[in-house]
Amino acid sequence: MSNSEHAKSDYVDMPRSSRLLWHTFELTTLCALCYAIPVALFMNALFSRILLDTFFLLIGLLALTRLVGNRVAFVGLAVLWVGGCCAFRYYVSVLPLVRDIQEGAARLPGVFEPELLVSAHFISLKCFAEFVLPFLYAIYCVRKSFSFIRFGIAIVFGTLGSKLLLYPFLENRTGYTAAVGVFYQLLFGMTLVLLPIQRLSLERLVGFPLRRRLETNGEAPTDFALRILGHGVLFLFLGMMVYTAPASLAGRLVYRRVMRGPDPTYYSPALRNGYDDTAVLFTKNGRAQLESLGRSFGIQTVDELKNLNNQKQLDDIWKATDIAHLKRDHTTAAPYFTALENLGNADYLEVASPTFGCLHNTVRLALSRALLSQHEGKSEECLANVAMIFRAAATLRQTPSLTMQMMGVNMDYVALGLSQICVQSWRGRDPEVALLLQTLNRAAPTVRASLNIDKMWRGPEGFCQPVVSDFEIVLPAVFRAARHTLTVWLSFDLIRLRTALELFHCDWGQFPESLDELVPDYLQSIPRDPFEGKEYEYKRRDDHDYYLGVNHEKKWFVDKKPLTFPSPNLQESISSETLK
Q1: How many domains, the chain?
Q2: Whole-prediction pTM
Q3: pLDDT above 70: percentage of residues in the chain
Q4: Is residue 354 assigned to a domain?
């Protein structure tokens, strides 16, 4: 009887429930692959990378099998294929990670503690083992006779099992997710026994033979070399598990070290009870309600705001704007302005973070309202909006979510852009410049504060756990966030110094010889460059002209893409020559 006939007879003899189970398994696998490929390519979902890795690994191995008929040659080429995949992933993802740690962590004190940096090397090992362990397990399962079906099943279960074995204690799991994790680990353990030992039972389940019956007695060939290869692969598989065990244990210890302190309460109704108006920022309907408001105004983003170089450009924007319609939009958005004000008055958020779209549109409308007040000569109302944005940004930077913290940084960008427009428009006007400097001095303690890394490490919304799957995706974002945060410090310092210089000129009719003359009447102390700790460059050219800036060419953080704000030609935008 041929293999196909034997498989057909086995399939007919199968119970109906077993056939239904097998078809369900086929359909589930197909749907998972069809879902994982587009999601992984277009959304970069972390969990779908497991299925995507398995898919491409199977495609490569099947292609090698088509080209090579010899079993030993196939095994050799397959090992090279898997090793190449591992090397590619290692050099593409892990090495830049280690380089970022070495170059960045030393320059960002307080972001990462030294004893936590060693965890990145554990991640490198696990990233390598993720590819190797499933393949070694599959080779062990087909050590006596090769079968596409059996090899594919072994790869799928091996991928699932290696993922669970390598990351058993590294996520902050609830009771439900922990129970599910234990169930899948038990399922993998049962499969580990089922595939190599009880293959006859599995053949009856799937409906066709998982091994080639080459002898009349139905026993698989027992070639000595293949047996040695199979047992060698098994010992190598177990050895890699044992070798990665210290990494998993160390990861668990580091995780406990990081998850210090009690978890904050995220779903307490205290905030909504205390600040009822703030609740509108937490509704998904807010984005739809605000989306169409204020669109007639010519400035909608921070980039458009920072590209304003003189008052004439702003006047041209106002000429093209329907001011009456813009005021009606501001009246419609009044509840959201109240919510943003209450958000700034809150000490911290005890509930889930506000919806990003609603918060973004509220800040966008607050930007246009502040510029409208500045255009109409209402300096106090303009600065009240600036202070409101600064305070709301400070609250968001206390949340345990990097997304919300960076939203707070973006709001600081908006407030700084408004401040730059104000100091540019109010040159020589003592009362307005004095109010602006007072607003900036009040905001200084909150703006010049580091990212709250401690809060990001705690709780179910914690962002950056030093030991986490696909860590190479997570860690660079922290360094980028820290760089952008320090850039906010730098921009804030320059605008505050410039405001103090303008107020000094209003009082004395000339600019000071050095920045030290601003202390203590205008500033409590002279800030320093947050990146290198050096003094800012200041040169008095004459009584009515000066230069204030920083040399970006010498900064370690410069890359191919310029930072969002301030502009690359920061010296020119700060220099008083651009205002003449």
Answers
A1: 2
A2: 0.55
A3: 39
A4: yes
